[in-house]
Amino acid sequence: MQALWALLIRDLKSASRAGGSLTTLIAFYLSLGVILPIAIGPDKPLLASLGPALIWTGVLLSSLLGLDRIFVADHDDGSLTAFRHTRLGLSAISFVKLIVHWLTTALPLIVLTPVMGVLFSIDLDTLFAVMLTLLLGTPAITALSLVAAALSVSLKRGAVIAPILVMPLAIPAVIFGVGAAKPVLGAGQAETALLFLSAMSLVFVAFAPFAAALALRVSQE
Amino acid sequence: MTDQGETISTNWFSQLAHPGFFMRWSAYLIWPLALISAVLFAVGLWFALFHSPADYQMGETVRIMYVHVPNAWLSQFCYGIMAVSAVGTLVWRHPMADVSMKAAAPLGAAFTAMALVSGALWGRPTWGTFWEWDGRMTSTLILFLIYLGLIALWRTFEDQLRAAKVVAVLTLVGAVNIPIIKFSVDWWNTLHQPSTFFRADGPKAPASIITPLLTMTLAFTVLFLLLHVLRMRTEVTKRKADRLEHLKIARQQKAS
Amino acid sequence: MVPQLPFPKIDISVKGLRCKRGERTVLDGVDLQAPSGTFVAVRGPNGAGKSTFLMCVAGLLPFSGTVSIGSQGWDEDEHPINEQMIFITHLNAIKPELTVYENLSFWADLGGGARDRIRPALEAAGVSRLRDVPAGAMSKGQQRRCSLARLLLADKPIWLLDEPTSALDKSGDIWIAGLISAQVRRGGVVIAATHRPIEPEADIAMVTLDLEAR
User: Fold this and answer.
1) What angle do CA A127, A132, A138 make, to 5 degrees?
2) Which residue of A178, B92, B99, B197 is surrounded by the most CB atoms within 10 Å?
3) pLDDT by residue (tens digit) across C58-114?
4) Would you list the domain boundaries of chain A?
5) Would the pLDDT of A197 be above 80?
């Protein structure tokens, strides 16, 4: 447990000092918030009705941006090999990486979402609904990103290939996320969608570290 | 089953699956498979084109179904083969499992693409549009994206044995996800458009439709098996050639 | 310094080691006997499989043949990661944005030793002045010293070192040779893959493993 904590602290420190990546993330997300309304036109009711879907798409795309960072640095500087002789298993390490990636990628995007809400002129209730679905749904996306990052860790072009692997698998999260934030069939639908969304996040977060550990072990051979 | 029985059967299996031995026995499969597939296609097409009724709503275009349904079935069957091969790669570390997985991926993508194209061609006269965000079509399109991802990942690796293991992990992750995707897309579909289109679980189809449909499905499946065996043989030969090439280079370097 | 008690007896033996990496057979029939208190120098040209040999002994690659460490032996397949060893690869496992102290205390917390050893370890490595400097600001040689200081934190009987002297100057070479000699005298086993020969003190039992290019 102490070792896991040490890894979490080290990765957060390292992420906060390396700099640049958080700014890139914010800039990318906000750029989408500008480009999409410009492409659609300043039609406020239309933007408001598209808002939840656009925000979810924006979060998905932005979170794929720094995906390769999850394991690449530790792979390139030899830390991943060194981990193999510590008390921590690769799955425990992957679990910590999942938390770190969520904290450094998904969380800032969720915090920024009110700004997007203003740009898309969606009302407060919808905004809260969107933020709630993001909170419950992004762990599933982060879990898939973890596996994709582990699969492509030894590849030079990993940063290009990994998002392609995540996107089709992330579709259910988008469906339930938007389905809960913008219920077309009333409150019952939102409830169902939220339940599915949470179940998906729980299951993916539970299994992804093991799949990632397997991928890491295999790609070191 | 006794322990001995099990060891014998695994030996028998691993012998059958040894690359050299595979090349010998699979050679006898090619012509029979090609012949069976050709006969089934001839019979199936004859039934489909001349001995099945035109639909009272869709008219003659219903015959596209005899191509569309087999391809849609193969798009999933092929993923099943890949998932089983992936288990073979990761658990038994068997080289032929890699070969089978690698051979199946582009075939799966091709059959899925055919299912999508035939679906679009069928959709145009029936629904009045090439693409309808219908549950089945959407799931098939996502499956196609997953196939593309697998192929792309495979091609990014230089070392084929390492690639096989990594792709196997992704194949299994995909296999777990496909039911979730299918379920979520169906749910999404019921929100946006209550389905009134053609459904396989509708009223019981008469034998005049079932016979050509089953024959064509069988014909396409045998064709798939034939192509799969052919691609596996090509892959084994290619690996042998690569190995010889490496040896040649190594020898030249030693000589100089 | 922390008292240096002798290690319990621990012998390494490798028989008929064969290892494939991807499609390439890198090692084919390698044998090694390294009883407690031996320094093994693994030598050979580039591509001879020095790193692969270390990774097999470290349990990071599947192989065929036998590797036994102490009373535990493994055949045919991966062996569980052994808690008795520390493996310093040719990479430093140092995060450039963290300070030297933060880097080492991280590895200490991860089970590589106690935090109160960090100070003496840094002093021994000759980088104690740089304790609070970001590791990325140090020279390559200083980073290497910092990475090797992990050996002193961990206090494990078996050391696996991949090119320990790379980027080190003459005094660094001497420091490493001294470290290895002390470890071997305590009854440990050091297996090091090197280009430049390491010269431990004269009374140290040394075995040379020559690998051929394939």
Assistant:
1) 115
2) B99
3) 888 888 888 888 766 665 555 566 678 888 988 988 888 899 999 888 888 887 667
4) 2-220
5) yes
Type of residue numbered C149: A
Question: Is it the case that residue C181 has pLDDT exceeding 80?
Answer: yes
Are C23 and B250 within 8 A, CB to CB?
no
Extents of the domains making up chain C: 21-32+48-210
Q: State the pLDDT at residue B197.
A: 44
Partners of B185 on chain A (C-beta within 8 Å) are 171-172, 175
Instruction: Return d(Cα A63, Cα B152) in angstroms, integer.
Output: 21
Report C:4-33 residues touching B (Cβ under 8 A).
20, 22-24
Chain B residue with minimum CA distance to C214:
B250
Angle formed at CA B196 by CA B192 and CA B199, multiple of 5 degrees: 115
CA A92, A95, A101, A104 torsion-angle sign: negative
Mark residue C47 as left, alpha or beta (left: phi above 0; alpha: psi -120 to 50; beta: remaining). left
* Token pair 């000589």: residue: B255
Distance of alpha carbon C206 from alpha carbon C192, whole angstroms: 11
- Between CA A183 and CA A173 the distance in angstroms is 15
Residue type, A77: D
The structure tokens 């400097």 sit at C133
DSSP H or E stretch at residue A31: helix A21-40
The CATH number corresponding to C21-32+48-210 among 2.60.200.30, 1.10.8.60, 3.40.50.10140, 3.40.50.300 equals 3.40.50.300
Angle at A46 between CA A42 and CA A49, to 5 degrees: 135
